[in-house]
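Researcher: Let's continue the batch. This sequence belongs to ATPase, and it's 154 residues. Same format as the previous ones, please.
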Amino acid sequence: MDRIDSGSRVIAAPPATVYNALLDRTALEAWLPPEGMRGRVEHWDPRPGGGFRMTLTYLDASDAPGKSSDATDVVEVGFAELLPPERVVQKAVFEAGDPSFAGTMTMTWQLTVAGDGTEVTVTATGVPSGIGQADHEAGIASSLANLASFVEAS
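Model: Same format as before. Here are the structure tokens for ATPase:
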């Protein structure tokens, strides 16, 4: 059975606000990098069939060497589906010399009304074997916490 990494969080903002944060370059740079990283978007094309390239830099690479270099993870992300304000499906490919990080990972961001807020559920399939499930799910949780802080402060 294929591994599924996931996380969810209720965010005190309407789905449209959360959806917009998923498709805004500046917002994505601010909230997507998990704790201990910063991100830079190198190109941006927010449409089905478009995508972006992001370099994630470890603030301290001594504990977690990067996939692309000692201190970075570089990922090319394509937008496979954009269904406002309910879902964003991304196809992510890491730049890495190590074959355990090869392949295309699908990240689905599902947005569901939850009272006055939005439940955001992230599921990842096709996760490269070199990415540990516990670490990946901790990273998803961290990004969701960042997303909540970002949109709830707006």
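Researcher: Any comment?
Model: Strands lie at 4-11, 37-45, 51-58, 72-83, 87-95, 105-114, 117-125.
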